[in-house]
Amino acid sequence: MTAATSATVKAVSITAVLTGLGSLLGFVRDLLLGMLFGADAGTDAFLVAWTIPETAAPLLIEGAMAFVLVPLFSRWIELGHDVRELVSATLPYLCLGLVALSVLTAAAAPWLVGVLAPGIPRPEMAVDCMRVASVTILTFGLAGYLSAALRSHQSFTAPAAIYVAYNVGIVACVVALREQGAYAAAVGVAAGGLGMVLVQAPAFLRRFGTPRRTARRVPLPVLAFLPVAVFTLARQCQVFVERFVGSSLPEGSISHLNYAQKIAQVPMVLSLIVATVSFPQLARAISAGDDGRARRRMTRDLVAASAIVLPAAAVLIVCAPDLVAVLLQYGAFTAADTEATAQIMRVYALGLLGQAVVGAVSRAYFCRAGSYWYPTAAMAAGLAVTVVLARPSWGTTGIAAANAAGITLTALLLVAGLRRRVITLPPRAVARPIGGLLLAATAAAGAGWAVRAPAADLPELVRLTVTGAAIAAVFCAVVVATRAVTALTDDTPTRMRGRA
Questions:
Q1: What angle do CA 168, 141, 53 make, to 5 degrees?
Q2: Model-level pTM?
Q3: Tens digits of per-residue pLDDT, 150-203?
Q4: Distances (CA, A) of 284 to 70, 320, 420
């Protein structure tokens, strides 16, 4: 294992641990909100206000902000410039823009609440919560900027800790201010956003010190941000489509879709950790015109993402009822809810590979000028498929199938467009290892069904453990036999392998 590979594995491991801790605290947060405040007009008001940070997060942290700023910082480093000059030239203007958007959102809170939830019982509380939550536009934007700068310098620990800080802030405020009702959660969201900035500030100052004025003209890439923002929002629209169509289905349908999606997306989130860590390396390679290095990096990202989501998809498809029962079947969540959620989750799992591919490949387009709008067009095509196929008459599983079909089409379009717009990616370089992983996942799923059937009388947790172990064992055995993941460990340049 080379030093570069070892550093990447270490960064992925640290990021995975901190991301998992942040997700666990997010679960604690949701559980605490339900226990203390239940589901009433107050919590409805808070959830309407929570639309602001829910929309700001993908734009300003992991999504659009990262897609624009990581390539910008990477190009600056590749050219040998002082990054402090770039910070001095961009950060003040970014702060002014974020402050203006935060103030505008706070001022428009009554109108926004009226548009988002015109029939809400307590609109005045929703307005108050939204005004408090509007500060996250500033704090999320700053957090995204600091994360992009640090990751470009191969510093991943502080950026990975932002959701730990965020959820700690919410949980602390909810506990301390619980007598204020759901308003305490809005204060917690604001405090958590500030925590995202503070947890990264020491590392940022150590890396970059005092900003240095520069004579170079460094305009903020606003025009580059626009297509990235549209792409990110188009991807979020899949959730809006699901909820819009699900609202005409029987009571509980939207909840079943939401629970199934949250569980099914866990492996997709884990696969994106690999792409997040490697993004600065990919951006530098593309900026330097080193197509060979960029091609190898993209191939490894795709194979690594597939190696994570495909065995997970096998587990989700085979063990869906047991998994949902172990995680959710408590209190008001009945066995019927478990069955409905499990059916949806099995269909969602069919789109996991597409989700992972979109997350890994889309980043490459935002590293090269002239290709920014193609991912948006690909996502729009996938969203159109989802809209056409998501019909109320086909029920919740039909909505999940529409989601899987739409994101899979987007993934295929993005991979197909790489060769002409960004880097040449030979089809065999990706198809062969991913094909081996698909074969391994299929064999593992078959073994899982064979093991699960005789274990029908065992408790859910025991059955889940036994079946999951069988799936993992068969998947690993087939992967080793087919050598499907050699792309993850082979550091030999493609041209040299061709001469061997």
A1: 55
A2: 0.72
A3: 887 778 888 889 999 999 999 999 899 888 877 888 999 999 999 999 999 999
A4: 9, 41, 19
